[in-house]
Amino acid sequence: MSDIDVRVVQTSSLGDRSYLASDGRTAVVVDPQRDIDRVLALAGRLGVRITHVVETHLHNDYVSGGLALARLTGARYLVAADDDVDFDRVPVADGDAVTISDRMRLAVVATPGHTFHHLSYVLHGAGGPVGVFTGGSLLFGTTGRTDLLGKQHAHVLAEHQHASAHRLADLLPDGTQVWPTHGFGSFCSATQSDAPASTIGRERTANPALRLEANDFVAHTLDGLDAYPAYYAHMGARNAAGADLIDLTPVRPATPAELRTRVDAGEWVVDLRSRKAFAHRHLAGTLSFGLDGPMSTWLGWMAPWGAPITLLGESVEQVADAQRELARIGIDRPAATTAGTPEQWADDDPTRLGRLDTATFADLAAARAGAPPHGLPKPDVVLDVRMSNEWHASHIEGAVHVPLPDLPARLRDVPTGAVWVHCGSGYRAAAATSLLARTGRTAVHIDDSYTAAAEAGLTTVPGTDEETTA
């Protein structure tokens, strides 16, 4: 039984995990997110001192808090020696051993694949290896994707990924815990897994990287890759430069007059409330990105990089939570924020309030049969805003496909008439419907699970590449 305690600091909105491992006195932090106050609070509760901070790789999906945490605590900051960075760090490479305390040490293992210089860290206690921090290498039932440094590198990195997974499996006993950074909904993961925990032994039987021959694994990995968030293009450079301390101080509140100006200018004025609340009543011209879903991923993907973003929430706490989420991906400060109700944001002017029609797939089936329920408009267009791999697997016959991230630039491609919009569960469709409504289009939000489409009697068919363009 190991006397080392490993705690997870989960960032479910981005599908990532950071870790704090300690022996009761001394701690090492692995792949910390930008909001390091969570890690500092955890260390304080445990009564441990952070002496080392380590990065498995230069991250593409979030701004790291590693440099700021190391500077604040005086910890040694371990980054791959081969990574070109603009700050002082302790360079580490394959074969290095790092003593954390008299009861805890790390063995550095080169595991290229997710990036060229990716490292994994085997955590050793008094009785031998306890677990391995695998970053974007060996994940639960999958591996990190290999195309984030450019499609031209995807094939060779997939080969590296296969070899790295086998190296870890050959090096470590079956009972060794696997502690990945990605793989819990992150777009850094090649595929998704619902497993809450894993070991090297479990991965031997569940992970394609350890079950398939190299050529088959490469083909399997490349075939499964879909688009990833546009903001990823900015994360690697930001992490190589080194990020300062996060600033989560409140942003000044916007007045109703300022909100009118920003909406009229076509800025991204974002309503953080639930999509149901947005549909019921909202400030006209605003966009639905509820904080109850992956707001930062989709908003960060769709809004032009550097464009002003205004946050509207039902409480100060909701706005603060959204500000934290966005800072994690490098959107450091909103242009303005405010908390309250749509009536307050509209300065009690009913002409500035809007609502969205909502429907189910059963409603769509009835409407297509000539009997639109609840006074809903006849569906001239069914717009599917899911990702390409979802479309290819199955879509509603006759639907038009524009993936949600492409919609801001392709609004004119959506055929004329009343548009009924759907996704997989309703979250993305809410954002798309609000975008269409902002342009004056008649749009209905299908707030329903896609699995209900066939159950409602709608014909679903597999997609083809030619059908993905509106």
Give your account of this protein's structure.
The chain is α/β, with parallel strands linked by helices. 30% of the residues lie in helices and 22% in strands. It has 16 helices and 24 strands. The chain has a 6-stranded mixed β-sheet, covered by helices on one side. A 5-stranded mixed β-sheet has the order 7-8-9-10-11, with no helix packed on it. Strand 9 and strand 10 form a beta hairpin. Helix 3 crosses helix 6. It is globular. The model has no long low-confidence stretch (mean pLDDT 95).
Integer-rounded radius of gyration: 24 Å
N/C terminus separation = 59 Å
C-alpha geometry: globular
Uncertain parts:
none
Mean pLDDT: 95
Q: Can you count the helices?
A: 16
Helix content: 25-40%
> Reading side by side through the largest sheet, how are the strands ordered?
1-2-3-4-5-6
The amount of beta strand, in percent, is 15-25%
Number of strands: 24
Largest sheet: 6 strands, mixed
Structural class: alpha/beta
Kindly list the characteristics that best describe this protein.
470 residues; alpha/beta; 6-stranded mixed β-sheet; 16 helices
Q: Briefly, what is this?
A:
Helices cover 30% and strands 22% of the residues. The protein contains 16 helices and 24 strands.
